[in-house]
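Example 3.2
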Amino acid sequence: MNPDTGTSLDSELQRLSRRLDLLALAVEQSPFGVVVMNLKGEVEYCNPAFTSMTGYALNEIAGHTAHPWNPEGTSDSIYDSLLTSQSIGEPWRGDVEARRKDGSTYWERQMVSTLRNTDGKPTHLIAVKEDISERKLRSKNYEQTRHLQEQALASSSNGIMITRSDADDHSIVYVNPAFERITGYRAGRSDWPGRAFSGA
């Protein structure tokens, strides 16, 4: 064998080895949970972030599907949707209510995509997961607060009109029932919503 050929091959193998080491390090240290499954959905790998998120170590879930950590009633529909996306070659994205090892539930945002070999043949599925429980809670609290505010405005005996503060004409965006009763302007009329406020 040509010595130069051997040296070139060794260099290529070293570059490949460094690249694989870098990829492995990126997955191991990722702040997002990463799960690699075979095409049956059985777990072959999970990273430390997934273990921290769920409480499950690899030796506890290897060979299992995702069903054990999804609450009852959600896993089947999610899995069907996932399979549909994979069958047409598209990543699946969604928010999933999941279950930790201690039985508590949390929300995670998932993206599941297909891994393919050099021939383009599907070999595995990879799921990247982010815990969005706090984000969901903030959104829920915001919606509840907004609902209470809307109820307070609607039930007030005082006439209330809200106009845009970021527009020169201060166009009307809302009036409550008391305002309608006092002024005669109706919320369903098409002549006032969005019009300029001129001391109506």
